Structure to design on (290 residues):
């Protein structure tokens, strides 16, 4: 199943994909699902309940649906408990930063003030002369997760999404302890346009085969597959759940194959095989789009 949050008459409303490339707003199926997608995720509905919801969406008449070509996508939601980022998870990206790949996952937290959605501006802060955008595979946690094994970790995932994680790279270069600072400017975390449940996302393929690519202005910067992550998704969930709980809607951004330097006027893009692309224009702080 594919879910998104779309703009309907100025309001952000969760929707599920259905027949003929259309979106069914969830509040037209269940009034309790009014609002963004976090409302659904926090209910921790099982696979059978989600399927029943999707089946009801298929039965809606076309005049109750939103054609995908008309959909204005927003961030799937804006206030998760936490956004957990993973650094240096590909050897190539570590080499770009003159770093060694860590033996254990290197992680950081981002505040929800950093969140934007598809089409929103990434704003380069005045403090930074070198900001990068990094395409990543995002994991959306579907239920409370504590001390989970690697074998069971993926069962705790509601779905996956495309991510653009921004870094003020010049600030980070001043001191590695500035990682949180360099990652937490407003607009430094974009995700969407959709969240896709794992069964539909994989559809018979292996997660390790999924390719993630960073693009700037339509030009590829770096691409790689999940198989080449130093610490793969199940390990990331299991490892961090040993020290802290994950809650429904928490996001884990699993690391980038490579970062693209962004300037005002360009468009940053994350491409993840099997997902709609995520694009965000870039501008400077306190200026219009260049």
């Amino acid at each position: 199943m594919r879910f998104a949050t779309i703009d309907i008459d100025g309001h952000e409303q969760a929707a599920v994909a259905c027949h003929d490339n259309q979106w069914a707003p969830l509040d037209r199926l269940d009034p309790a699902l009014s609002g963004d997608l976090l409302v659904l995720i926090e209910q921790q509905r099982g696979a059978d309940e989600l399927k029943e919801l999707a089946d009801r969406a298929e039965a809606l008449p076309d005049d109750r649906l939103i054609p995908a070509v008309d959909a204005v996508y927003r961030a799937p939601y804006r206030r998760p408990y936490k956004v957990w980022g993973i650094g240096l998870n590909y050897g190539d990206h570590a080499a770009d930063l003159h770093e060694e790949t860590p033996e254990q996952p290197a992680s950081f937290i981002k505040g929800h003030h950093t969140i934007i959605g598809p089409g929103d501006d990434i704003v380069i802060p005045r403090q930074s002369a070198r900001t990068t955008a990094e395409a990543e595979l995002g994991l959306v946690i579907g239920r409370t997760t504590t001390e989970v094994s690697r074998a069971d970790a993926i069962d705790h995932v509601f779905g996956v999404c495309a991510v653009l994680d921004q870094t003020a790279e010049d600030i980070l270069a001043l001191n590695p302890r500035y990682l949180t600072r360099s990652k937490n400017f407003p607009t430094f975390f974009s995700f969407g346009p959709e969240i896709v449940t794992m069964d539909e996302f994989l559809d018979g393929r292996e997660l390790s085969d999924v390719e993630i690519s960073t693009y700037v202005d339509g030009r590829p910067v770096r691409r790689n597959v999940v198989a080449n992550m130093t610490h793969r998704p199940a390990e990331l969930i299991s490892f961090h759940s040993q020290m802290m709980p994950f809650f429904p809607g928490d996001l884990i951004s699993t690391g980038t194959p490579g970062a693209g330097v962004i300037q005002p006027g360009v468009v940053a893009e994350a491409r993840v095989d099997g997902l709609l692309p995520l694009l965000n224009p870039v501008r400077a702080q306190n200026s219009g789009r260049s």
